[in-house]
C-alpha cells in the first residue's frame, strides 16, 4: 500500500500480544501454572512497538518490565485472558498468542484453604476455552499468530494447530532442544503459514528473533 514505510512498517496498525503463563486457582493460597517466563511474548511486543505498531500486551503473571512504547494489561487466568483479548479483537490488525495458556483449570475453586488428609488426593480439572481457536472462528481481517512448544513431531503438530485454530501462522519450537523455549534467553523456531509456507530460523536471542519473525510476517501481510 502507499502508506507502507520501511522503517515503521506497522505504523497505524494495532497489535495485541499475549504473554506469560496463566494461573488457575485451586484455593485462596494455591494455583496451577507452567514454566512460561513471558520472555518470548515480551520480545514480540517490543518488536511490534519498534516496527511502529500501537502495541497492547495482555500478560499473565511474570517478572518482566513493560517494553517501552507498549501498554500492558495484567491478567491471571485463561478466562481473564480470553475476556481481555476479546475486548480488543475487533480493533486489532494482528493478534500474537505467545501465552502459555493453561489447558485445564480446577472444576471448582475452594473458598477456604484446603486442609490435608491422610492418603492420596485428586483435583478435578475442567478444560479452559481455547483462546486462539475462538479468535480463529471469529476472524475478520486480523492476522492471527500462534505459538506451539512441542517435544516431538513438531512439524506435524504445528501444521495441525494452524488448520484447527484457523491461524495465519504458527511459530513452533522444539522445547527438547538445548537453549530453546521455556525460560531461555534464546529460541530456535520454524514458522508455518497457510499454503505450505515454512521458514526455519537459527538459534537467536529472543529479542532478535522476535524482530526477525515480525518483520517477515509484516512484509508478507502488509507490504503488498
Ligand atoms: N492457546 C490458546 N488458548 C488455550 C490453549 C492454547 O489460545 N486455552 C494458544 C496458545 O497461546 C498458542 C497456541 O494456542 O498460541 C498453541 O498452544 P499449545 O498449548 O501448543 O496448543 P494446544 O491446542 O493447547 O495443544 P496441546 O497443548 O495439547 O499441544
Ligand atoms: Ca496447551
Automatic annotation (TrEMBL):
Placed within the complete protein, the shown segment runs 176 to 399 of 399
Required co-factor(s) are:
FMN; Mg(2+)
- Per the UniProt record, the source organism is Planococcus dechangensis
For this protein, the Enzyme Commission number is 4.1.1.36, 6.3.2.5
Q: Which family does it belong to?
A: In the C-terminal section; belongs to the PPC synthetase family.
Q: Does the keyword Lyase apply?
A: yes
Query: What's this protein's name?
Result: Coenzyme A biosynthesis bifunctional protein CoaBC
Keywords recorded for this protein, A-Z: Decarboxylase, Flavoprotein, FMN, Ligase, Lyase, Magnesium, Metal-binding, Multifunctional enzyme
Top-level division of the source organism's lineage: Bacteria
* Binding site residues for CTP: 103, 113, 147, 161, 165
- Start and end of every DNA/pantothenate metabolism flavoprotein C-terminal domain? 10-218
Sequence segments annotated as region (Phosphopantothenate--cysteine ligase)? 15-224
**GO terms, molecular function:** phosphopantothenate--cysteine ligase activity; phosphopantothenoylcysteine decarboxylase activity
> What does the record give as the function of this protein?
Catalyzes two sequential steps in the biosynthesis of coenzyme A. In the first step cysteine is conjugated to 4'-phosphopantothenate to form 4-phosphopantothenoylcysteine. In the second step the latter compound is decarboxylated to form 4'-phosphopantotheine.
Amino acid at each position: 500500500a502507499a502508506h507502507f514505510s520501511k522503517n515503521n512498517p506497522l505504523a497505524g496498525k494495532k497489535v495485541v500480544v499475549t504473554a506469560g503463563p496463566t494461573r488457575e486457582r485451586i484455593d485462596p493460597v494455591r494455583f496451577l501454572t507452567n514454566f512460561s517466563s513471558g520472555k518470548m511474548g515480551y520480545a514480540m511486543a517490543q518488536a511490534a512497538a519498534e516496527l511502529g505498531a500501537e502495541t497492547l500486551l495482555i500478560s499473565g503473571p511474570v517478572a518482566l518490565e513493560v517494553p517501552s512504547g507498549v501498554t500492558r494489561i495484567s491478567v491471571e487466568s485463561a478466562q481473564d485472558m480470553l475476556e481481555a483479548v476479546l475486548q480488543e479483537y475487533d480493533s486489532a490488525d494482528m493478534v500474537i498468542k505467545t501465552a502459555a495458556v493453561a489447558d485445564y483449570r480446577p472444576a471448582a475453586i475452594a473458598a477456604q484453604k484446603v486442609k490435608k488428609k491422610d492418603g492420596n488426593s485428586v483435583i478435578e480439572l475442567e478444560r479452559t476455552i481455547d483462546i486462539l481457536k475462538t479468535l480463529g472462528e471469529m476472524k475478520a481481517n486480523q492476522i492471527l499468530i500462534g505459538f506451539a512448544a512441542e517435544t516431538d513431531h513438531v512439524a506435524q503438530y504445528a501444521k495441525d494447530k494452524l488448520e484447527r485454530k484457523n491461524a495465519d501462522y504458527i511459530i513452533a519450537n522444539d522445547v527438547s532442544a538445548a537453549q530453546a523455549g521455556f525460560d531461555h534467553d534464546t529460541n530456535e523456531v520454524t514458522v508455518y503459514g497457510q499454503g505450505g509456507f515454512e521458514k526455519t530460523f537459527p538459534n537467536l536471542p529472543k529479542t532478535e528473533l522476535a524482530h526477525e519473525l515480525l518483520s517477515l510476517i509484516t512484509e508478507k501481510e502488509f507490504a503488498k
